[in-house]
Amino acid sequence: MVELVIGVLVVVVGAVLTAWANYRLQRRKERREDTQRALDLLNEIQHTVDEPPTATTPEHLAQLSRRLRQTEDDAPEDVQPSLARVGGRLDSYRSSWGSAPRSGSLAVQEGTPPLRAAEDLRKAISTARDAIRLYRCRR
User: From what superkingdom does this record's organism come (predicted)?
Assistant: First the structure.
């Protein structure tokens, strides 16, 4: 009789643990799906910033900015502030095109954004990635 009770308890505990593990895996999958679009877009922005500028770069940055605004609206609340920060830095980076100063021996090509704006954008992207990573790992 005692063995039967212990056996039933083991089965019940096993079933509860299995259900809990499945629930956690499903939540993790949902959090990954919720943030994948934002992460892909952040990677595309990073890639664009790291590439040498071309004539189409300003228009591409404008498209990325519009897509980021939409992605920010669709993203989970936990990552929206960091995506908004990236949007602000991206707009600042875009607005710095053509306003780069020329100085003595450091002739900056016209149309090239200052390095400071690019670095600020990279930091914001890194912070957003960290926020997404934290959101995905949340219990």
Answer: Bacteria
Dihedral over alpha carbons 60, 66, 72, 73 (to 10 degrees): -160
| Each residue's pLDDT expressed in tens, for the chain with a length of 139 residues | 888 889 999 999 999 999 999 998 898 888 888 899 999 999 999 999 999 888 888 899 999 999 999 999 999 999 999 999 999 999 999 888 755 444 443 334 555 557 888 999 999 999 999 999 999 988 6
Question: 55 lies in which domain range?
Answer: 35-100+107-137
Whether the CB-CB separation of 49 and 93 falls below 8 Å is answered with: yes
Number of domains in the chain: 1
